[in-house]
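BUG: 3D viewer hangs when loading the predicted structure for this chain

Environment: internal workstation, default settings.
Expected: structure renders.
Actual: progress bar stalls at 90%.

Input used:
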Amino acid sequence: MKKELKRRNFIEQLSFLYNDLERFIYALTRNNEVKNDIVQSTVEIGLNKYEQLRSESAMKSWLFSIAKNEVNKYYKKNPLTVEFDDISAAHEDAVAS
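Structure tokens produced before the viewer hung:
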């Protein structure tokens, strides 16, 4: 019974933090599709590991830590790349100005 109550409390608190979580992840990724994927994986991890949360007052920092780890994991698998042609065109525009 205690486990179910803790799960309900987690879901209730998550509903209050959800928009902040989305904004935080978007600020790190600047990509809506990536943001949505990472929000989903963060919530899934939180739901699967909510029993490890020691204090409900620490939930926001705990959840945001999970989100930051998920963002880092995403960028390790999908490194940011810049095409040389884009750099070359930007340089030419700067020189022309």
